[in-house]
């Protein structure tokens, strides 16, 4: 663990009181929610079970290892009243239309405060995939839907996944059949509308693919309005055999948002997952990325770029779980931390006893731009098989003085030279993006972000 | 000679690194059209002098001053020195992964033009000049598209330095041990490039350990730096004398 300069946030706050406050608020929220559901509700039982799991686990506190550097409970207690129900959006905001125009050609799906906005989701029966709310999917194909839902809801990892499972109102189910190669990406706009008041929401997305398909998903997170928003999202992605799925999480327009983003993958044999996380906006971000490689010859690649400034806090916890032989994973996360900001990286690699011939590689590189910037980086390898190749490396440093001087000595002003070096540092991640228009968008947006940094 | 032709005047320059004095009173005047060679044994302060002139951080000037085209050189940022016409060919050119060689050159050229109040070159003009200058140092096209110095051989790095020099067209070039690590063919290529760029309006300071480079870049003056001071100056014959006798006789003479 490399920790620099700043005392743990948790030491600054009286944590126990906060834990009780948030716990009680969530209790109230759940009681209201569960009583509003009809008895026939297909996943009511799952929501109740998740709630009990949450009660047993409790909220993270000062000594909870997984949240040691992100004192989420205190922040929630201070900023939000979690007994409030998610607010329905006005849904007429022209800002949403503007937002949809700025991106590139895609199948767009719009969720506002976790609820599917049909008017802005122009997907019809001729689309090469299907989207349903959980209710619709359950009404049409209860067994088929529950089979997928149970697989994903059975995840026993993080308390915030349980909280989402207990409290989400309307899930979104996307199904991509066998042998489909999508001609353009699926872009899910997850919008938190805080225009009228502070907003709490629990988006829930389930993506399941068939065999031998290929697609890209962009999960783009946005905040409208100036009030604070808290999002605790779960996205479950079941990747079928021989399918390649690229998924991009864009946390680049979060505004006043606090976000816990849980993404879980379940990979079948010969599948390929490329997961990307770009984070440089928002007040607080905690990403829990969990990839379960459940069958042999599957491959997972995880790329991340985070760039917090001011007092922003960005935390990436990743776990890749190799469960079967002949699988590989590759992880590259890079961070640039400025101002008083904090970055956290925790990368876990599990290699189960059956998972012989695993290849796993992990790297985390960080640049600190100020004396007040902090990074906590920690690799965690747990290997129970004996014939595997695993390696990891973490670096923390400043901009290279000799590189800076070299550029300056050729007439390039210091500030521009710094930007060139930061852009080249970040480009190792951005260039891994397989969608060229998205690469361009990210380069441009990243450039704007660092122009405020250094 | 008119005062304005005195391009560089180093006057009683003292400098230290981490409290240790390295330069102990350097005096040197360079005029347009001249080639000066600075020689000396290891640790005499040759590279320190080059670094201080280019503005590398980490050195403290404790006394003296340097005028460059009538400006107080030491008060300028490194990029301002480059814009004023000073160029340092590095002994160890830095590798910068992720920055393409061509983009870097274009940025550098246009930043210097901007500083001088000139319009930036457009892509077509720039590439035309680049092609012409790359031929001068026999630079492979492929290297122009690679990232800056990354994975370049020693010779390729040095040729890339001379290419940068050609593109930026400085009035004063300081070549810091440009011959180190070069075989004889690479040395000839580099020297050919430097000689092609030489005019009556620019000047060159060649810092070297060996006389070998001076067979190809012929100096007008040779200075011997020892223990932070110029202990002897002379014509190009002095370099030959040093090659034959080594530095020890000078050490004894100054002891």
Please explain how this structure is put together.
The complex is a heterodimer of chains A (454) and B (255). Helix content of chain A is 28%, strand content 36%. Chain A is α/β, with parallel strands linked by helices and 454 residues long. In chain A, the strands form two sheets. In chain A, strands 2-1-5-8-10-12-14-16-18-20 form a ten-stranded mixed β-sheet, covered by helices on one side. In chain A, strands 3, 4, 6, 7, 9, 11, 13, 15, 17 and 19 form a ten-stranded mixed β-sheet that branches. In chain A, helix 2 (15-35) packs across helix 4 and helix 9 crosses helix 10 (414-430). Chain A is globular. Chain A starts with 8 loop residues before the first helix and ends with a helix. In chain B, strand 1 (6-17) and strand 2 (20-31) form a beta hairpin. In chain B, helix 6 (154-168) packs parallel to helix 7 (184-197). In chain B, the strands form two sheets. Chain B has a six-stranded mixed β-sheet, with helices on both faces. A four-stranded antiparallel β-sheet of chain B has the order 2-1-4-5, with helices on one face. The mean pLDDT of chain B is 91. Chain B is built from nine helices and ten strands. Chain B has 255 residues and is of the alpha/beta class. Classes of the chains: A alpha/beta (454), B alpha/beta (255).
* Mean pLDDT across all amino acids of chain A: 90
Instruction: Give Rg of chain B in angstroms.
Output: 18 Å
Structural class of chain A: alpha/beta
Q: Largest chain-chain contact?
A: A-B, 23 and 29 residues
- Tell me about the biggest sheet of chain A? 10 strands, mixed
Distance between termini of chain A? 26 Å
β-strand amount of chain B: 25-35%
How helix-rich are the residues of chain B, as a percent range? 25-40%
């Amino acid at each position: 663990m490399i920790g620099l300069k700043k005392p743990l946030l948790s030491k600054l706050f009286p944590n126990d009181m906060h834990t009780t406050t948030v716990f009680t608020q969530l209790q109230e929220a759940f009681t209201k929610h569960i009583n509003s559901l009809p008895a026939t509700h297909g996943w009511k039982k799952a929501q109740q079970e998740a709630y009990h799991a949450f009660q047993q686990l409790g909220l993270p506190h000062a000594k909870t290892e997984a949240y040691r550097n992100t004192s989420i409970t205190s922040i929630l207690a201070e900023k939000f009243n979690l007994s409030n129900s998610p607010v329905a959006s006005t849904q007429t905001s022209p800002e949403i239309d503007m937002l949809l125009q700025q991106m590139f050609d895609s199948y767009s799906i719009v969720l506002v405060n976790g609820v599917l906005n049909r008017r802005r989701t122009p997907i019809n029966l001729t689309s090469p995939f299907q989207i349903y709310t959980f209710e619709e999917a359950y009404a049409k194909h209860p067994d088929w839907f529950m089979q997928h839902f149970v697989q994903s809801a059975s995840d026993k990892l993080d308390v915030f996944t349980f909280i989402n499972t207990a409290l989400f109102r309307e899930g979104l189910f996307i199904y991509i059949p066998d042998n489909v190669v999508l001609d353009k990406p699926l872009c899910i706009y997850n919008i938190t509308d805080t225009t009228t008041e502070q907003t709490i929401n629990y988006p829930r997305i389930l993506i399941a693919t068939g065999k031998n398909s290929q697609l890209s998903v962009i999960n783009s997170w946005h905040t409208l309005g100036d009030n604070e928003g808290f999002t605790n999202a779960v996205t479950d992605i079941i990747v079928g055999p021989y399918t390649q799925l690229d998924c991009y999480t864009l946390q680049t327009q979060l505004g006043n948002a606090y976000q816990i983003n849980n993404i879980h993958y379940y990979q079948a044999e010969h599948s390929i997952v490329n997961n990307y996380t770009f984070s440089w906006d928002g007040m607080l971000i905690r990403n829990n990325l969990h990839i379960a490689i459940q069958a042999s010859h599957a491959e997972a690649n995880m790329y991340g770029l985070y760039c917090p400034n001011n007092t922003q806090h960005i935390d990436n916890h990743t776990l890749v779980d190799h469960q079967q032989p002949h699988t590989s994973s590759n992880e590259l996360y890079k961070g640039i931390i400025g101002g008083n900001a904090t970055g956290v990286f925790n990368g876990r690699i599990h290699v189960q006893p059956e998972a012989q011939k695993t290849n796993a590689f992990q790297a985390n590189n960080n640049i600190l731009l100020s004396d007040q910037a902090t990074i906590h980086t920690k690799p965690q390898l747990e290997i129970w098989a004996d014939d595997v190749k695993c390696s990891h490396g973490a670096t923390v440093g400043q901009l290279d003085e000799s590189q800076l001087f070299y550029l300056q000595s050729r007439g390039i002003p210091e500030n521009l030279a710094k930007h060139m070096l930061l852009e080249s540092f970040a480009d190792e991640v951005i260039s891994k993006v397989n969608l060229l228009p998205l690469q361009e968008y990210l380069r441009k947006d990243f450039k704007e972000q660092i122009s405020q940094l250094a | 000679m008119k005062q304005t032709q005195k391009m560089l005047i180093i006057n009683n320059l003292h400098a230290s690194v981490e409290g240790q004095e390295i330069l102990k009173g350097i005096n040197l005047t360079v005029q347009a059209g001249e080639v000066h060679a600075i020689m000396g044994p290891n640790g005499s302060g040759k590279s320190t002098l080059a670094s201080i002139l280019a503005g590398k951080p980490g050195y403290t000037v404790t006394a003296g001053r340097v005028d460059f085209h009538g400006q107080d050189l030491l008060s300028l940022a490194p990029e301002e020195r480059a814009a004023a016409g000073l160029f340092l060919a590095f002994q160890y050119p830095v590798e910068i992964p992720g920055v393409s060689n061509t983009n870097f050159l274009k940025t550098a050229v246009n930043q210097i033009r901007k500083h001088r109040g000139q319009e930036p070159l457009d892509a077509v003009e720039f590439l035309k000049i680049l092609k012409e200058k790359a031929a001068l140092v026999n630079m492979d096209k492929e290297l122009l598209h690679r990232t800056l110095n990354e994975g370049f051989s020693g010779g390729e790095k040095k040729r890339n330095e001379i290419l940068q020099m050609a593109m930026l067209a400085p009035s004063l070039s300081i070549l810091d041990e440009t011959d180190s690590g070069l075989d004889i063919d690479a040395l000839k290529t580099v020297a050919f490039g430097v000689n092609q760029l030489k005019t009556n309006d620019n000047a060159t300071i060649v810092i070297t350990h060996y006389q070998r480079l001076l067979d190809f870049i012929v100096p007008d003056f040779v200075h011997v730096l020892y223990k932070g001071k110029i202990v002897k100056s002379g014509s190009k014959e002095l370099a030959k004398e040093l090659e034959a006798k080594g530095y020890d006789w000078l050490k004894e003479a100054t002891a």
